[in-house]
Amino acid sequence: MTNLFDELTRLITKQGLNVYAEGEATIIHRAATKAVIPTGSTPPDEATPEQLLVRALIVMTTYEDSEDFLDWCDEFGYSASDPGHLADFKSIGEGIANFQALIGAERLSELGMLLRIGQAISLARPR
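RESULT FIELD:
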């Protein structure tokens, strides 16, 4: 089975992506296209580009798995009446569209599937 981190390393190298954190957002950038994915928390200073992409993928898959804004708020315990949460929700949608423009919708779907498989395996392992 393909390792998600290995795939992300290949993606960064092959696509020439610059991945970094800016506050609570992961920035994925190449040439004139930039995807900004709000992740809800500031990553550690030593986070690698691959770790930053995993954080962004978790946010993107949760967004895509949500039926709508209210479902997304319920998932995180957010107040739907807070305009900041609506702004974040919209920013994630815009970030996903920009990331798809960078790497393609099919490739993004593959990465999301690798993330979900990894999460399922991790949950299935005895502690």
